[in-house]
Amino acid sequence: MQIAFLTLFLGLVTGPQAVAVDPGAGVAAVELALDGRGVARLEHAPWSATVDFGPALLPHRLEARGLAADGSEVARAEQWVNLPRPQAEVDIVLAGSAAGKTRTARLVWDSFTRQAPSELELSLDGVPLPLDARAQAPLEIPRAGAAHVLSARLRFPDGVEARRDLVLSGDYGGDVATELTAVAVRGAAPGKPARTLAARDLQGRFLAGGRPAEVAAVEQEPAEVFVVRAAGAQSALLDRVTPGPAGAHSRPNMGASRASASLDGRAYGTFAPDPRIHLHFVSPVARIYKSGAATTAERFDITPSMTAPGLDLGRLLLAVRFRLPDHPRLADAVATAGLNALARETPRAVVLIAGGQDGATDLSLMVPATVRAYLDAIGVPLFVWSVGRPGRALEAWGEAQNVALPWELRRAYDRLEREVLAQQIVWLQGRYLPQAITLAPGPGASARGVQGGPADQLELVAKPPAAATPRR
User: Fold this and answer.
1) Residue 250's pLDDT band (cuts 50, 70, 90)
2) How many domains does the chain have?
3) 89, 9 Cβ separation under 8 angstroms
4) Residues spanned by the domain of 230
C-alpha cells in the first residue's frame, strides 16, 4: 500500500499551512506528525488538514502514516521542509495493491514556477507506459515477488527536470534506500591549517536527537560562498574598484577610480581569491511567477561559480550587476542563499554586502533575526560586510565588518577564507534534521567542540568565529 503527499513544500515556510495527502486503497485513516509529534488525524475526504510549522524558520520533518481499519500501519510517507529540495518534484501514486492485477499509477508534481511539464514519461523496467490526459496509466506487475523499477521523469519548459524511481515487488511494496546527512564541521581552530579527519577517528562523536549517529565518511571539498549584494553596496563598490580590461568576468567603464580606491597606498580589492573558494551571487530581487491573477511562487536568481583565475576580488564583486529597485528584499535573499549553500553539501558561508544604510526599508517577508537563527540552525555561517561605516539600519544583522578601505576588505576576506577552508564535511548514516545533531560529550569536550585526538578542535559549523584583531 502507498500514501503520497499532494502538498509539496518547495520554498521556505512558517506558520499554519494546508497539507493534503492521497491515502491510497486500503488506508482507513492518516496520521500527520511534525518532527515526531502528532498534529492531525484524517479519516475521510478531502484528506487535508492545517499544520502549524511555528513562527520560527526551522527545518522540519513532516510524516504521514496510513492506518488500516484495525489501526495497524500499512503505509508511510515523509517530506523535509525548509531544507534543500529540487526546483521541481514528481511523485507516483499507486491505486490498489493486489499482486498480479492491473492497477493505476498516477503522477503528481509541483514546481517553483507552477509551469505545466512539457514532457511526461512513466516506465516500468525501462518499458514506457502510456499516460492519459490525467497523467495516469494502467500498471500490472509482471511477476509476483520479483523486484521491478517504476520510473517517472518530467521536463519543464525552463529546462528543469524531476525524476522519481520506485522499487516495487509483487505486492507493490517499496524499498527504502540508505540515506546520509552531510554535517559541516571545523576540523581545526580558525587560522590553523585544516587537518584531514578520518571517519574511524570520529565514531562516537556525533549524536542525532540524543542518540549516537554513525560516521560514514569525511570529505574535504572546495567551498561554496553565496554573496548577497545590496544596492548601496553596488554603488559604493563602483566608486572604489579600478576598472579592469573587458572580458568574460569584467566590463569596461565599471566606474571611475577615485581617491578612496587606494587609501593607505593599496588598490581596493586587488588580490585574487583562493581558487578553492567558489563565489556565487544571489539577486536580492525575487522573480515572481504567477498562475492567472494569483501569485504562486517566487525565486531569487543565483549565478554559477564566478571565481576565475587572474580576476581580483574587487572586480569579481562587480562581475555580476543585477538590476536593483530602491528597496530589495535582503533578508529573504540571505535565507535563500543559506538554503542553497546547505544544498551543495560542501564547506560553505553566506556574505551580505551592504552600504551603511542598506536595510533601512527592507521589504522582506522575514526579519534579520529570523534569518540569522535559521542559518545557525542549518550550519551556514553568515558574514555581514558594510561598504562604509555600518549605520543603524544594519544593527538588526548583528556584527558587521566595515570594508570601505582596502585593508578592511582584505581583513574581512581573510576571515572568511580562514572559516571556509577550516571546514570539512562529515557524512552521517541516516537522515536527520540539522538542529538535532550535536557533539557527544567526552574527554576534552567543551560546549562548542571536542578537543584532542586526531583533530585539534572539532566544532559544528554555525556562527562564524569572532573577528580577529584588526591589522594594517
Assistant:
1) very low
2) 3
3) no
4) 178-472
